[in-house]
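#onboarding

Welcome to the new folks! Below is a worked example of what a typical request in this channel looks like: someone posts a single protein sequence, and someone else replies with the predicted structure as tokens. Don't worry about understanding the tokens yet, we'll cover that in week two.

Example request:
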Amino acid sequence: MVCFLKQGLQRAPVVDKWGKPIGLVEINSFLIAMVGGIDLSSPVHEVMAREFLTIDENAPLEKLISYPISTILVISQEGLLTGVITKSDMHRIIGEKYGLYNKQLSNIIDTLPDGLLVI
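Example response:
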């Protein structure tokens, strides 16, 4: 959790020893675990989400519009994690393309529930 706070992260992918994504950990998972009495020295797999969305690294950006979620793991054709795209990234890319990017507005949008599209 300290790593999340120091880096300003809200979530991070979990990969196996080959680099394939196997889960996603959110800072909220840590908080819920703490309230539930789970020791923070417990393995990450006890709090990670095992369901997550992925997109091929060669997919067109327009495909991201159909993903109503805050984090999408980017994978290679071999299934290896090559990156992460967040809701902030999507808003920045679209905003910069159309000259609409505003950091303050983007921060507000990031706090909205997943799946909420604001136009």
